[in-house]
Design goal:
By secondary structure, the chain is α+β, with helices and mostly antiparallel strands. Helix content is 19%, strand content 33%. The protein has helices spanning 24-35, 65-69, 104-110, 135-140, 180-190, 216-220, 225-229, 249-256; strands at residues 12-18, 40-42, 51-58, 73-81, 83-85, 94-97, 116-120, 129-130, 133-134, 150-163, 167-174, 195-205, 208-209, 244-246, 274-280, 283-290, 295-300. Strands 1, 2, 3, 4, 7, 10, 11, 12 and 13 form a 9-stranded mixed beta sheet that branches. A hairpin with a 2-residue loop joins strand 8 and strand 9 (133-134). The radius of gyration is 22 Å and the shape is globular.
Length: 313
């Protein structure tokens, strides 16, 4: 018999506006203790250098982590022109300088090169695993690290403003796996100069935005647990804009048991093939895949389960 985890069954999303110099796992561990929750996990690492939107999934919301991590991201960042660091941000030393600084017209003319699918080589100072070890750990041990090139997609890149001291602020909307530090360095290179990030802030992650967030310092002020739980967003929040299927009680029971159901009883709901949210009497039952002849469960939810489950962090 497996031992049950200590803590409460808490389900939902807590979207933290992460402070600089705090690790994502530190936020996960703190919030788990704060809510005395059995399980939680984050949806994509934010480097300690970065700030902004960090969704934390609790309980059954952890089953929806892939829907958030695979979603679109948005960041705002500031580039310092004329210098380069080994990490692409302020966390390491300057390794090269130049007195070439791009004009606004040059920046605007170069941006289109970075829209669409582009190739990136992630920085050595990253959380990517090489033979089971984090790349940044290997670099700090003095080892050479070679990270393979990857293809990512940039949906939009905008110059927001030019700043004093040869700096510029940008906004980018991008796919999962995009390294904004690398984007900044590559943009500088295309402009015939060097650059690194002074600031990096995630403003959107999947369906979550800054408007959904709470600062950890404000959370800590909520001494009563019931007050704190009010800031949790419903599990279904991560599935905004996904079609919803209202189930019969009998079909809800079948899906909860992992069985497929027939779409014939739901023609009045104008079903379309693809992924949908299935619910009964206002409660989330499953994420389903709708096909011509069957509706099959992809993720089944059990909000009353005490069974031990885990989330990788």
């Amino acid at each position: 018999m497996s031992r049950r985890k200590k803590g409460e069954n808490i389900h939902g999303w807590l979207v933290i506006d992460k402070d600089r110099d705090m690790g994502s796992t530190d936020v996960v561990n703190f919030t788990r203790r704060f809510f005395n929750a059995k399980k939680n996990g984050h949806t994509g690492t934010l480097d300690p250098f970065a700030t902004g939107v960090l969704p934390i999934a609790f309980g059954e919301a952890t089953k929806l982590v892939p829907f958030v991590t695979d979603g679109e991201k948005e960041y705002e960042f500031i580039i310092q022109w004329g210098a380069e660091t080994s990490s692409g941000d302020t966390e390491s030393e300057v390794v090269a300088t130049t007195d070439v600084y791009p004009a606004k017209e040059e920046i605007l003319a170069t941006i289109p090169q970075f829209i669409g699918e582009i190739k990136q080589v992630p920085p050595a100072y990253s959380a990517i695993k090489i033979n089971g070890q984090r790349a940044y750990d290997l670099v700090r041990k003095g080892q050479d690290v070679e990270i393979p090139e990857r293809i990512v997609e940039i949906y939009d890149l905008t110059l927001l403003e030019e700043l004093p001291n040869h700096q510029a602020k940008f906004r980018v909307r991008c796919s999962k796996g995009t390294y904004v530090r690398t984007l900044g360095m590559d943009l500088a290179k295309a402009l015939g100069t060097k650059g690194y990030l002074l600031e990096l802030r995630r403003t959107k992650c999947g369906k979550f935005s800054v408007a959904d967030t709470i600062l950890l310092e404000n959370l800590k002020k909520m001494v009563h647990s019931e007050d704190a739980k009010k800031v949790l967003l419903p599990v279904i929040t991560a599935l905004r804009d996904i079609a919803e299927l209202a189930l019969t009680e009998a079909d809800a029971a079948k899906l909860r048991q992992g069985q497929a159901i027939s779409p014939r009883s739901y023609q009045d709901q104008n079903l379309k093939e693809g992924v949908a949210v299935a619910s009964f009497d206002g409660e989330l039952v499953a994420i389903v895949r709708i096909e011509e002849k069957r509706i099959s469960p992809q993720r089944v939810f059990n909000f009353n389960s005490d069974a031990e489950t885990s989330v990788s962090q």
